[in-house]
Amino acid sequence: MPSCRALAGLGLPPLADLLEASSIVVVPRRAFAAVRDETDDRVLEAAVEGAANYIVSGDDDLLSLGSFQDILIVPPGEFVGKIQL
Q: In this predicted model, what pLDDT tens digit does every residue of 45-72 receive, in sequence order?
């Protein structure tokens, strides 16, 4: 996968194509009730099923968890600092 620096010159359509090409579709087999917003639980379910390393979000409920089943939950700025540029 290209670095963020390499992606900086891409417009939105190429970036969307890259994200789609490097994504997987999952159907969660387990339901969680870890946060007050049910839609956030769906994010957690998909991340667990897809064996994600990170959930990148600005959502306060998700961020308040810090991590979920060994998946780090970080805001975008922190994630950019963690990845190799």
A: 999 999 999 999 999 999 999 999 999 9
When divided into structural domains, the chain yields a total of: 1
Contact between 33 and 47 under an 8 Å Cβ cutoff? The reply is no
Domain residues for the domain of 29 are 25-82
The answer for residues whose C-beta is within 8 angstroms of residue 50's C-beta and 6 or more apart is 24, 26
pTM equals: 0.74
| Residue 34, pLDDT score | 93
Structure tokens at 58: 């600005």
φ and ψ of 22, to 5 deg: -105, 10
Has residue 35 been placed in a domain?
A: yes
What is the token pair recorded at 6?
């390499």
pLDDT for the residue numbered 64: 95
List the beta strands (DSSP E) in the chain. Answer: 54-56, 67-68, 71-74
